[in-house]
C-alpha cells in the first residue's frame, strides 16, 4: 500500500510506477465540480477510473476486500472517508469470491486492520496483497464523498528483471 497527497505528486512521480502516475495525473487534472459519476477509460479495460458520489457508512456495514487483476488507486477530491487497511495473510477468511465478475474477494473480518483517513487531495494505492475496507465514516455522521477509483491491470506494473 502507498499513501500520498496530490500536493506532492511531482516529487512522488519519480518513484511511483508509471501507470499509477498516469492515473494520478488524470485525477489531478479532472474538473471535480463538473465530472459525473461513471467510468472513464484512459486505456480501455487496462487503465480506467471510476467516479462515484456516496455517503460514508459505519465500518461494521462494510466488508474488507482485495483484488487480483487490478491495482486500486483511490483518490478523494471532496469529503473524507476512512479506509481500513492491512496486509493479506493466511488468517483472512474469504466470504465471497467474485473474481470473474468484479475482480473482488470479500473477507469476513479484518485481522490487523489499521484506519486510514483519506481527506481531500489524498490517495491510496492498494496492491493484490493489500486488504482494504473503503467507504467508512470518519465521524459519527455520514459524509458525502466524491471518490475516484483508478484501476490498472497488475501486468502493466510488472517488469522483467535482466
The biggest sheet amounts to: 6 strands, antiparallel
SSE series: EHHEEEEEEHEEEEE
Major sheet: order of its strands? 1-10-5-12-3-2
Cα-based radius of gyration, to the nearest Å: 15 Å
Mean pLDDT: 94
Helix fraction, binned, reads: 10-25%
Number of DSSP-assigned strands:
12
Unreliable spans: none
Query: Could you tell me the strand content as a percent range?
Result: over 45%
Query: Structural class of the secondary structure composition?
Result: mainly beta
Q: What is the molecular shape?
A: globular
| Continuous helix count | 3
Terminal Cα span? 26 Å
Compose a concise summary of this entry.
The chain has 3 helices and 12 strands; from the N terminus they run βααββββββαβββββ. It has 162 residues and is mainly beta.
Give the helices and strands, then pairings.
Blueprint: E1 2-5, H1 9-12, H2 18-29, E2 38-43, E3 47-55, E4 65-66, E5 70-78, E6 81-87, E7 94-98, H3 99-102, E8 104-107, E9 114-118, E10 122-126, E11 130-136, E12 144-153
Antiparallel strand pairs: 1-10, 2-3, 3-12, 4-8, 5-10, 5-12, 6-9, 6-11, 7-8
Question: Key terms for this structure?
Answer:
162 residues; 3-stranded antiparallel beta sheet; 45% strand; mainly beta; 6-stranded antiparallel beta sheet; 12% helix
Structural features, described:
The structure is a single chain. With about 160 residues, this protein is mostly beta strands. It has three helices and twelve strands. It has helices at about 10, 20-30, 100; strands spanning about 1-5, 40-45, 45-55, 65, 70-80, 80-85, 95-100, 105, 115-120, 120-125, 130-135, 145-155. The strands form three sheets. The protein has a six-stranded antiparallel beta sheet with strand order 1-10-5-12-3-2, covered by helices on one side. The longest helix has 12 residues, at about 20-30. The radius of gyration is 15 Å and the shape is globular. The two termini are about 25 Å apart. The relative contact order is 0.29. The model has no long low-confidence stretch (mean pLDDT about 95).
Amino acid at each position: 500500500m502507498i499513501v500520498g497527497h496530490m500536493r506532492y505528486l511531482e516529487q512522488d512521480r519519480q518513484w511511483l510506477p508509471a501507470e499509477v502516475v498516469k492515473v494520478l495525473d488524470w485525477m489531478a487534472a479532472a474538473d471535480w465540480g463538473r465530472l459525473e459519476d461513471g467510468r472513464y477509460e484512459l486505456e480501455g479495460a487496462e487503465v480506467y477510473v471510476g467516479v462515484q458520489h456516496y455517503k460514508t457508512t459505519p465500518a461494521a456495514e462494510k466488508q474488507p476486500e482485495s483484488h487480483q487483476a487490478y491495482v486500486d488507486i483511490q483518490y478523494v477530491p471532496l469529503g473524507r472517508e476512512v479506509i481500513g487497511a492491512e496486509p493479506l495473510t493466511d488468517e483472512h477468511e474469504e466470504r465471497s469470491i467474485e473474481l470473474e465478475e468484479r475482480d473482488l474477494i470479500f473477507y469476513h473480518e479484518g485481522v490487523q486492520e489499521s484506519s486510514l483517513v483519506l481527506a481531500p487531495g489524498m490517495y491510496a494505492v492498494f496492491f493484490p496483497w493489500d486488504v482494504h475496507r473503503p467507504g467508512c465514516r470518519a465521524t459519527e455522521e455520514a459524509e458525502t464523498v466524491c471518490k475516484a477509483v483508478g484501476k490498472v491491470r497488475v501486468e502493466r506494473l510488472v517488469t522483467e528483471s535482466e
